[in-house]
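Hey,
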Amino acid sequence: QVQLVESGGGLVQPGGSLRLSCAGSGFIFAIYAMGWYRQAPGKQRELVAVVTSGGRTNYADSVKGRFTISRDSAKNAVYLQMNNLKPEDAAVYYCNAYYPGNNYWGQGTQVTVSS
């Protein structure tokens, strides 16, 4: 049974930081590309950042220089360090695991950015 469990969301003031974590199980974590997506109310889900099985990363333009994605295959975990958060970063953040033919999602964690 595949599981992706996110944690680390919450309320933060503009300019603050949060670190999201995602723990995966039930699949061969090391061969999957791992990503973070987000969905704000009334908007489509969008890619935030992705890290390939080989460690290459890619970021949405809106978060470049502020967010950092990393993975620890020994722990079957992927992280998203979010710095200098802005109100427009507020959304539900979803963990994703992708391998050709398989695409898994977590349940999401809420990030609220407000003073």
